[in-house]
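Input/output pair, single chain:
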Amino acid sequence: MTQEKHRKIIIIGAGPAGYTAAIYTGRANLKPMIIQGMQPGGQLTITTEVDNFPGFEHGIQGPELMEKMRMQAERFDTEIVSDNVMEVVLNQKPFQVRCDSGDTYTCDALIVATGATARWLGIPAEKKLSGYGVSACATCDGFFFKGLDVAVVGGGDTAVEEALFLTNFVNKVYLIHRRDALRAEKVMQQKMEENAKIQPVWNCVVEDILGVPGKEGVTAIRVKNVHSGEISDIAVSGVFIAIGHKPNTDLFGDQLDKDETGYLITKPDSTATNIPGVFAAGDVQDRVFRQAITAAGTGCMAALEAERYLNELEGSASRI
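Output:
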């Protein structure tokens, strides 16, 4: 049986941004609702060791961190709904959130925390060895490869930035690109050329990633030369896929302003979108940092701004 419920505030997404927004709005007695979708916890649910989130001196597993955030949000009367949002109607008040189950929810303020999804190559080994040497975030996982050889796959700014960052820890970085020239900015390319730890592997695509899930993990990356067809294995302990991220914003169509790559645009020093009462937090609006801690920070910002918006809304209504 379908139903319609109204809440003062609804949060779409249950990653660090969404949970933090719920904690803050819950503490403000707004009784928020989170619609968490099919992957509660976002990308951290497929991350093993999280070593850079403050407060955990020995690190913490990604899924455990998300579980702790969920329990903290629930402690402040957050209602968590397991459903997929299929449509959002933002051209009327209250806003409408329509779900796959057939249920429709309405709200006075909406926080979008749907995150971004890493683009993958699409080979089976990526999933099999995820967390065992395969990663899409050098900033998150580079520390674990001290003194080892790794590979970065990609040819844009992200790939070069990841490769340069990894040289702070690793012995060597093989930068694998399917062409013979990079798309990255010239300044970035120059920095890469000056770094003796980075070895480009031109005109090659990834055929497979070798290794065994568990203690052994990744052992090599198999590449194919696009011109000669020659296949070779490069011994590495880690593979970083750096071919970009896709923000999860298709749901909103053209209702919310986006940049050329689909990230939601927010006002300067704010999480406010182009529609009053709609706020965006986390990786869905952050194309630069994409860290759990920065997502949590913008979740806090969105909650405070949403609370202020609702107070102003109630103040206007009381004066009518």
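Residues 19 and 68 are 10 Å apart (CA to CA). The first helix runs from residue 16 to 27.
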